[in-house]
Every structure is written in C-alpha cells, then in structure tokens.
Design a protein that fits this description.
Layout lengths: L1 H16 L11 H5 L6 H27 L3 H22 L4 H27 L4
C-alpha cells in the first residue's frame, strides 16, 4: 500500500506546487484566479502565496520520493487545502476560476486522506 500512498502524496504535492510557478509569471495570476490585480500590494501578497505553495508542494514531493516525513507532509498539505476549502465556503460568492481551484483542492484532499489512511491501516507494526 505504501507505493500507492507515495504516488498519491506525489500527485497532491504537484497540485500544491504548480501555483508556485505564478511567482515568476505574475501576468498569469489574473487569469488563473479570475481576479484583477488592483495594485502592487495585491501582487506581492499573491506572489508570496505562490512561494508558500512551492514550499508545501515541495515538501510533499520530497516526502513521496525520499520516503520521509510522511505525517508532516500530509499534515501540512491537508492544513493548506482544507483551510482553503473552509474559507471558500465561509466567504462564498467567488468566481468560476476559484470554484475550479476549490474542486481540485477537494479532490486532492480526499485522495490524500484515503491514501494516508490506507497506508496507516496496512502499515506493519514496528
């Protein structure tokens, strides 16, 4: 079961890492999130957010490849994705592009929970 979990962790890491590329392509932020960058302050915050995604996704990918820090990588990934889901539903009234982000995060969250649960259930006692 560990190989399946590692694949899921890797894929969830990629989902989290991809937005980090927006750090280097700020002109794509508006299209990706369906928003207008109203000024340098908003651009700064969103580009910093992209860097944070790189850290989260990078940790998850590293963990999947090196077989280390599973619990920490899953925890950090889930905190990131679940907090977005909670805020999405609390705030409401968001645009279609952010709805797509929510769907991707919901799918990745579900897969990550299932993968980690199956891994822990099937894990041999030390």
């Amino acid at each position: 079961m560990e190989p399946i979990f590692r694949i899921i962790l890797f894929l969830a890491g990629v989902v989290n890492f991809i937005p980090s590329l927006l750090t280097f392509f700020p002109e794509r932020i508006s299209k990706s999130y369906g928003i207008i960058l109203a000024g340098a302050d908003l651009e700064l915050l969103l580009r910093h957010r992209a860097i944070m995604f790189g850290i989260i996704g990078g940790l998850m990918i590293y963990s999947a490849l090196k077989k280390k820090y599973y619990a920490m990588a899953v925890s950090v990934g889930l905190i990131s994705m679940v907090s977005f889901l909670i805020l999405y539903f609390l705030i409401g009234g968001v645009n279609q592009e952010l709805g797509k982000v929510m769907q991707i995060d919901a799918g990745a969250t579900l897969l990550l929970i299932i993968g980690f649960a199956l891994f822990k259930i099937r894990q041999k006692p030390a």
